[in-house]
Amino acid sequence: MIRVEQSPTAIIIGGGAAGFFGAINLARQSPQTQVVLLEAGTQFLSKVRISGGGRCNVTHHCFDPAQLVQNYPRGGKALRGPFSRFQPQDVITWFAAEGVILKTEGDGRMFPVTDDSATIVDCLTNAARQAGVILRAQAPVREVVKRDQQFLVTLKSGETLTGDRLLIATGSNPLGYRWAEQLG
Predict the structure, then answer these.
(1) Pairwise CA distance, residues 17 & 22, whole Å
(2) Cα–Cα nearest to 25, from 41, 10, 40, 38
């Protein structure tokens, strides 16, 4: 009997900047993993498109994690560790490697030199496609459960996806919090 191993699958819920960034980096670091990114709406990166008045405020020109967390009074303590591991300089370097140059404004906000959020949208979309990420818009999630070592993600259409990894990148959407809570 020949056993065929199925490649690992990661499901990313949320087609915003965090979802794209997570999907791209996972696909690049683990090319044998099938990465599926789900977006409930018709358009990926919708908040990126309108951020910064349509120019896309990408990051802030502050490279000291202790100083950076002061801008987050309700989450500063929790963010200190993550900002020490991946901070604005890393964001700048990542985008530069993708061909996007950022500029700093007088107040420290950083935007693409094009002053156009489409630069960031195109960068993330192209990087995801080149990394082999499967992009699925209009794929709202109804339910997420964990059975054994697998995550079962049921879409509102009734389709169920199975993955051994799951990233919930839904921002402030209360559904994301509920799924995370249910998963423990």
Answers:
(1) 8
(2) 10
* Residue 76 predicted with pLDDT over 90: no
Question: 88 with 68: CB under 8 angstroms?
Answer: yes
User: What is the distance between the alpha carbons of residues 48 and 68, in angstroms, rounded to a whole number?
Assistant: 21
DSSP helix/strand/coil, 69:
helix
Q: 108 to each of 59, 60, 68, how far by Cα in Å?
A: 9, 6, 11
Distance of CA 165 to the CA centre of its chain: 14
Residue-level pLDDT at 3: 45
Cβ-Cβ contacts under 8 Å for 65 (sequence gap 6 or more):
80, 83, 84, 87
Instruction: State pLDDT tens for residues 145-174.
Output: 999 999 999 999 999 999 999 999 999 899
Strands 150-155 and 102-104: unpaired
Quick check: pTM over 0.85?
yes
Measured between alpha carbons, how far is 23 from 114 in angstroms, rounded to an integer?
25
